[in-house]
């Protein structure tokens, strides 16, 4: 079992920055690919970014490329989402997620993720 506890988020003006953290406890964190999803009001939850277990590969949805950065610190069992140049359309509840290794893994598909954080609100004002 893995528990994911998120911190960070809040209210920021457009153009500002925020960092989200997701601390994992339980089984070996380093073996999981980690991702961030978000859900805006009235929308489905969507994939934002992901990082492989070793940290060697990352993936980003097009709308956040060049503005968001995912990273992980295996020593702290934590994955981070650094968000810069935030836009009002980034407003959403953000969730971290963990995926154990599995065949056919595809970043954006929620069914591949085994554990989820509790979610944290990010609000970007214009």
Offer a few descriptive terms:
126 residues; 11 strands; single chain; four-stranded antiparallel beta sheet; mainly beta
Describe it:
- Helix content is 0%, strand content 51%.
- With 126 residues, the protein is mainly β.
- Strand 5 (46-51) and strand 6 form a beta hairpin.
- The chain is globular and about 40 Å long.
Question: How would you summarize this macromolecular structure in one to three sentences?
Answer:
This protein is mainly β. Helices cover 0% and strands 51% of the residues.
Please tell me how large the radius of gyration is. Answer: 14 Å
Q: Report the count of strand segments.
A: 11
**Shape by Cα distribution:** globular
Number of H- or I-type helical stretches: 0
Structural class: mainly beta
Tell me what portion of residues adopts beta-strand conformation. over 45%
Distance from first to last alpha carbon: 40 Å
Mean of residue pLDDT values: 95
Q: Could you give the order of the helices and strands?
A: EEEEEEEEEEE
Poorly predicted runs: none
Q: Could you give a short account of the major beta sheet?
A: 7 strands, mixed
Level of helix content? under 10%
Topology (elements, then pairings):
Blueprint: E1 2-8, E2 10-13, E3 18-26, E4 33-39, E5 46-51, E6 58-60, E7 68-73, E8 78-83, E9 92-99, E10 115-116, E11 120-125
Parallel strand pairs: 2-11
Antiparallel strand pairs: 1-3, 3-8, 4-5, 4-9, 5-6, 7-8, 9-10, 9-11
